[in-house]
Amino acid sequence: DLQYLPGARLAGDDLGRARTMTAALAAEHCLASDACEGWTFEGRSSRGRAKVSFRSTVGDYRPEPGWHTYRRIRPPTCLAGSAPEPRERRHLDVEVLREAPLVAVVRGFADRAACEELVAAGGGWASMGRAYTSGGGHSSARRSYSSNMYPPLQSPGDPFTRLVGEMFSVTRNLTGYSVYPPGQEPVNAVLYKHEGDEYRPHCDGRCSGGMHEIGERVATSIVYCHVAEKGGQTSFSVDALKVQPADGDMLLFAYKYRNGRMTGLEAQHSGCPIRKGQKWIATQWYREGVSDDWNWE
């Protein structure tokens, strides 16, 4: 019913005067009022005791060390006619390779038509350029080609938007994370086309532990639309896990524990060198706490 956002502060207090109490008592108070959407306080401990401010909206939070915010989670709703007709309910085959932190493979997640939509959204294989680091340069650890894909979220009936929505739905169901498409990073298309192309061991999020910070990455999914004939597996440094995907599979792995603490090297992984053939994948990184108003950038 509640999402904890460490290091986040809500502005103001529009549900009465601030009161001194524990987080447990604040939860009882908030959940008993339909008008309450969350609360915030400053203190050393996320459990209080502290002066708590209750809010009727929680969209105006911002990162600030030493502050704690709890946000009420409500079932998503929509106005009639504002969303496309849902697809027929899908039954997915999920293979859990590790429970905590989660590593799972959703077999046959994307069919050929869905992969064709993804490749088209990425501009086709020929248009992809060398992959860059976040600083704008090339990385000696990464030999591949990539392009970013932006789903038209304002068009819920678009096939690409529907597929991204299903990726987020599966991720929420398997991890329990509160992640939704608005405010997230674009889907990253990656092509490994030459023998020896690879991505050496790395982490998508922090590998140093510590508590999760609002807006930080918490999970990654990889949809394999074309796998190499030899090589190209995804390998995890800890527990000696190696994922051998098939066309259409989706790998999902998490790097935040249920207590809010980030993983160490448990989520470090690599894309094994291509030995024969080519590999095309679509990567989505998931962040908790982002929105259209406060996006990943």
As laid out across the biggest beta sheet, the strand order is 6-7-16-12-19-10-9-8
Q: Considering DSSP H and I runs of 4 or more, what fraction of the residues is helical?
A: 10-25%
> Would you list the SSEs in sequence order as H and E?
EEHEEEEEHEEHEEEEEEEEEE
The number of helical runs is 3
Largest sheet entry? 8 strands, antiparallel
Q: Distance between the terminal alpha carbons, to the nearest Å?
A: 28 Å
Ranges with pLDDT <50 over ≥5 residues? 77-86
Can you put this structure into words, describing what you see?
The chain is mainly beta and 297 residues long. It has three helices and 19 strands. The protein has helices at residues 23-31, 112-121, 159-175; strands at 2-10, 19-21, 38-42, 50-55, 61-72, 93-98, 103-107, 129-130, 145-149, 187-192, 199-202, 217-226, 230-231, 234-236, 241-243, 250-254, 269-271, 274-276, 279-287. The strands form four sheets. The chain has an eight-stranded antiparallel beta sheet with strand order 6-7-16-12-19-10-9-8, with helices on one face. Strands 1-5-3-4-2 form a five-stranded antiparallel beta sheet, covered by helices on one side.
